[in-house]
Every structure is written in structure tokens, then in C-alpha cells.
From TrEMBL:
UniProt protein name: Arp2/3 complex 34 kDa subunit
Localisation: Cytoplasm, Cytoskeleton
Record's keyword annotation contains Coiled coil: no
Any one cellular-component term (Gene Ontology): Arp2/3 protein complex
Cited function: Functions as actin-binding component of the Arp2/3 complex which is involved in regulation of actin polymerization and together with an activating nucleation-promoting factor (NPF) mediates the formation of branched actin networks.
Organism placement in taxonomy: Eukaryota, Fungi, Dikarya, Basidiomycota, Pucciniomycotina
Family per record: Belongs to the ARPC2 family.
Organism: Mixia osmundae (strain CBS 9802 / IAM 14324 / JCM 22182 / KY 12970)
UniProt-listed Pfam families: P34-Arc (PF04045)
GO molecular function term, any single one: structural constituent of cytoskeleton
UniProt entry keywords in alphabetical sequence: Actin-binding, Cytoplasm, Cytoskeleton
């Protein structure tokens, strides 16, 4: 089984090296889900600029990403590099003296994508608490189109937050393997050791009830929906 780290390994490795030995840097690279990064020293080798671009960034800002980035990276936020969504500046001459604090800074920077995507989830959990106290409160369905043909739908309710992933498998072989793999999420919960895990449902073509009213949903044979309820 491949376990994907929540942080970006390239960012972590480059920053770890540059924190020890500053050097001219200009590296562009990509992460999963079409995320683009650029780590550079546009002015001098002791001033690092980390930029990220994601197709769904504008959607994420509607759900609190700007506030979350301000909270997590406030003093490092700088003018956004052209063709990117957000930029952070690190002055290597002003790094924390404590090595543990430096390690925490490196980890925080490498979690830029993860932290940005966390914004709608934090919003959903806050809304769920409000709905728990006031069931008649306003509900909100958040849609994040993080890939060209796929999206994440986050639906806070009175007693849970439901997350729906739309998936697309264009090739017949991919559809077969994908369906088997996704069905494992459903079947795994039947094991006694993890029966307390969130409910998982998988449907092919038919959108789950929580998002059935969303306009433009595809119901073709190559589309599936994975629903997590917590």
C-alpha cells in the first residue's frame, strides 16, 4: 500500500537544505490534483519565495482560505507572484534561532496545499455545531472543483458533516479497478475493529441524496461518487 504524506516532500527537502546553506534557487514543480509550486530566490539567495497555484483557489477563498492562510502564515504572506494564487516569503537571515522552531516552519510551509484545502472543512465543522444548536439555521453545500472533471462536496448537517468525492474513470479497465478499490472503503467498515469509522458509501452514476440538487452533475457510466459521513 502507498501512503501519501500530507506535506509536500520537495518543499520540505529544499527548505531543509536552504536553511542550512542558502543558494540561488529556481524550481517549479507540481503536486497531485494539478497544484503548481514555484520555489525561487528572485532578489537574492537569502530571500526565498514560495508560490502555489490551484485551479480551485478562488472557490477555497469563498470558504475561508484567505483567513486560514492569514492565521497560519501571517508574517510570511507577500505580494502574489504572477500566474500564481498565493506567495510566501522567507528571509533566511531572520530564521528562528531554535532548531525545533525552524523544523516547525519547514513543516508548515510544506503543508501549504493541505492547509488551504482545510478551510472549507473547518467552516463545515463550525456550521455543523451551529446547526446542532439551531436545526433551523442556514445550511450550506460547499463545492470544490479541485480537478478538471472531479469535485469535493462538503455538506454540514445537524448531526454530521458529509463529504462526497466525485470520481471519473474514463477507461473501462480503470472503471473496473476503481470500482473494486472504492468498494473496499464500504466493505472495510464491516470489520469489527473499525466499525466506529465514518460511514462510507459508493455509487456509480447516481449522485447521493446530499448533492442531488447540484446543477450540472454527470450521470454517465464513467462517473462514481464516494460519500464519507462523520
Amino acid at each position: 500500500m502507498i501512503l501519501l504524506e500530507e506535506h509536500n516532500v520537495i518543499i520540505k527537502d529544499i527548505l531543509t537544505e536552504r536553511f542550512q546553506r542558502p543558494a540561488t534557487t529556481d524550481q517549479a514543480f507540481v503536486d497531485f490534483d494539478g497544484v503548481r509550486f514555484h520555489l525561487s530566490t528572485p532578489n537574492k539567495k537569502t530571500q526565498l519565495l514560495l508560490s502555489m497555484d490551484w485551479r480551485c483557489y478562488n472557490e477555497l477563498t469563498r470558504y475561508g482560505a484567505s483567513e486560514l492562510i492569514q492565521r497560519e502564515y501571517g508574517p510570511y504572506i507577500t505580494e502574489t507572484e504572477p500566474d500564481y494564487s498565493v506567495s510566501l516569503a522567507i528571509d533566511l537571515e531572520q530564521l528562528p534561532a531554535d532548531l525545533d522552531e525552524r523544523a516547525q516552519l519547514i513543516r508548515s510551509m510544506s503543508l501549504l496545499k493541505r492547509n488551504t484545502l482545510a478551510a472549507p472543512f473547518e467552516r463545515a465543522f463550525a456550521l455543523q455545531k451551529q446547526l446542532d444548536q439551531n436545526p433551523e439555521g442556514q445550511k450550506e453545500l460547499m463545492a470544490i472543483h479541485y480537478r478538471p472533471d472531479e469535485a469535493i462536496y462538503i455538506c454540514p448537517g445537524q448531526d454530521r458533516v458529509t463529504v462526497v468525492f466525485s470520481t471519473v474513470f474514463k477507461e473501462e479497465t480503470d472503471r473496473i479497478f476503481g470500482k473494486v478499490f472504492l468498494q473496499e472503503f464500504v466493505d472495510a467498515r464491516r470489520q469489527p475493529a473499525i466499525q466506529g469509522a465514518p460511514q462510507v458509501l459508493y455509487s456509480n452514476r447516481e449522485p447521493p441524496l446530499e448533492i442531488r440538487g447540484v446543477p450540472g452533475l454527470s450521470t454517465t457510466e464513467d462517473v462514481g461518487y464516494v460519500t464519507f459521513g462523520s
